[in-house]
Design brief:
The protein is an alpha+beta fold and 267 residues long. It contains seven helices and ten strands. InterPro entries: FPG_cat (IPR012319), FPG_N (IPR035937), H2TH_FPG (IPR015886), Ribosomal_uS13-like_H2TH (IPR010979), Znf_DNA_glyclase/AP_lyase (IPR000214), Znf_FPG/IleRS (IPR010663).
Length: 267
């Protein structure tokens, strides 16, 4: 599932491709992923344009010139591609938004959705999200930590605690901080809290800079998207040697989520 760095990569890449470009049409093959009828969706978008793209947690917000907002959540397996009909990936497409001869394709939205709302409705929908990890200073982060007593893995993926972190980056952050993901929040020393904060900030910024871990390109010739994938320290590396000590990476389940760590480098 796309997490904060992947959605931020989409925001940055798509902003320069579609922002301000007139929308010339739409095509919908999965109406249940909309919150309005396909005809109404087409009427609201055709002739309109996106004036700003914003990310909140794992959501991407497409701000229309008319003041309404398209709220996208890709969920598990969802991704996007921008290009011509000839460049279109050979995958099932649920939505298309047309920009002349180029189209924005929404792919794999079996669980995801694309809803249109007013600004007020968007604020109500997203008000339960926790703070953005990269928007916190150390003192604010320490105050947020005091609200959680569960283990580190479960807490980091809880969107009401911190927004935008999921399975991949929760494991990567714990490894970078040298802390086991099954540790309870209350067991962390002040030094470990600082390590966790610094690791979270550094790792998320690194992942954004290199385009996140999802490898599907956003457009033909995209050389950025997915460049974090080969940099993963522990995620999805079961039995591979730890990049620090060489011992095998361990995979377990924590609250039905797969979790990867190094038993030697994380305490």
């Amino acid at each position: 599932m796309p997490e904060l760095p992947e959605m931020e990569t989409y925001r940055q890449q798509l902003s320069r491709l579609i922002q301000g470009v007139p929308i010339t049409g739409t095509d919908v093959t999965r109406p249940k992923s909309l919150n309005i009828a396909p005809d109404a969706f087409a009427n609201k978008l055709t002739g309109n344009r996106f004036v700003r793209l914003e990310r909140r947690a794992k959501h991407l917000l497409f701000h229309l010139a008319t003041g309404e907002v398209l709220v996208l959540h890709l969920m598990l397996g969802g991704w996007m591609f921008y290009g011509t009909e000839e460049e279109r990936p050979d995958r099932t497409v649920q939505f298309e938004i047309h920009f002349g001869d180029k189209k924005l394709y929404f792919i794999g939205l079996r669980l995801g959705y694309l809803h249109i709302h007013s600004l007020h409705e968007v604020d109500l929908l997203l008000r339960k999200l926790g703070p953005e990890p990269l928007g916190l200073n150390l003192l604010q982060f320490q105050n947020v930590l005091r609200k959680k007593k569960r283990n580190l893995k479960v807490s980091l993926v809880d969107q009401s605690f911190l927004s935008g972190i999921g399975n991949c980056y929760s494991d990567e952050i714990c490894f970078e901080a040298g802390i086991l993901p099954m540790r309870s929040m209350t067991s962390l020393s002040e030094t470990e809290k600082i390590q966790l904060f610094q690791s979270m900030q550094a790792l998320l910024r690194e992942a954004i800079q290199v385009g996140g871990y999802m490898e599907e390109p956003i457009f033909t010739g995209d050389q950025l998207t997915g460049q974090y994938n080969p940099r993963c320290r522990v995620y999805d590396r079961k039995d591979e040697p730890c990049l620090r000590c060489g011992l095998p990476i361990i995979q377990i389940e924590i609250s039905s989520r797969k979790c990867f760590y190094c038993a030697h480098c994380q305490k």
